[in-house]
Amino acid sequence: MAYIPPHKRHSKDVRTASPIPETLHPQFQRNMNLRASTSRKNKSGKIVYADHAISKWFAVGLDDDGQFPPYIHLEPISLEYVERKIGEKPLVLVNSIVTEEDSKLVRNCSRSPWEIIAENVQQELLSSFEILRNEMDDQGSEKVKPTLVARLGKFIFQGNHSMGLESVNKMQVEEAILRQLNRSLYTDIPSSYMENIIDGVVPAIGIDFLEEKDVYTVKLSDNTRPDATVLCKCIVLENKKLHLQKVKLNHVRQLVIDVSCLDKNLDLRLMLCTSRILTALTDEEMNSLRDLINSAVLDSDMKGGLRWP
User: Which residues form the DUF7903 domain (predicted)?
Assistant: First the structure.
């Protein structure tokens, strides 16, 4: 599949851009008293995990012995912002067989990939929901919103202090080696994938499509609470200006299950997250937030699709 960095895409692909401008953190100068839960742990920058968070990765499409087939290998991929950060090209899993049908002929599995995925995630998913339900019962009146998210993209693998990419055998893929590398999901996919979901997947599973919205999430840093990130959910109005809909604290990941789909050109991430809706902001704080959001300019050439004058 073709990877198009957000800052190089044409405007027709803005709706499939990664909605969160990860490198854009406007500093909100007001001293906002946003208290993060003490049960949270900040393990990686602003990505927050619950104390009991479950993280799992596995591959679908392995051979009968549970090994990576010989036609699966690792290849470097050019991603400018990742290369600037880590100083080298990350790796992606690539299927050297030309078509998906050819791949099915080579790997004649009695079970569908979805059966394998369901079997591998069921226990962790039910366990996480049970823990979350008990926690929500203890929260009382605090507004906690659980969200189950399925994201499509391509997993990129990066080296770390214990395992450099130069030491990785790229032609003979080993699960044990991949588990030692850092992994992230690259979600910039062509607009045709979203069109296929709307036109094909939605009717097939028996639900009705209501409308499509351009939604942006603006992340703000609170200088009084370095571990908290304020998320401003915004929609795009007809005049191409942003409208602030909701303000909440950063998501807390309860469950993250990554699935490398070897017979597909897309991978899957399943996440169970929670967020706390902010309802105690003063009028002055809300007005300051709205002024900041209203000043944003849509710009498809910028990472995240937004810029500030």
Answer: 42-309
CB 309 within 8 A of CB 295: yes
> Would you state the pLDDT for residue 139?
63
Least reliable range by pLDDT among 3-12, 229-238, 280-289: 3-12
Q: Is the pLDDT of residue 263 over 80?
A: yes
- Residue 306 makes CB contacts below 8 A (sequence gap 6+) with 21, 24, 216, 218, 242, 296, 297, 298, 299
Q: Which domain holds residue 194?
A: 6-307
**Reduced to 3 states, what is the DSSP secondary structure of residue 163?**
coil
Q: 75 lies in a domain? A: yes
Those residues whose C-beta lies under 8 Å from the C-beta of residue 144, and which sit 6 or more positions away, are: 135, 136, 274, 275, 276
End-to-end alpha carbon distance in the chain: 34
Percent with pLDDT over 70 in the chain: 79
153-201: per-residue pLDDT in tens?
999 999 998 888 988 999 999 999 999 999 999 988 888 887 888 888 8
Q: What is the domain count for the chain? A: 1
Please, which residues have CB within 8 angstroms of residue 168's CB and are 6 or more apart in sequence? 74, 91, 159, 177, 181
Q: Domain for residue 77, yes or no?
A: yes
- Whether 1 maps to a domain, the answer reads no
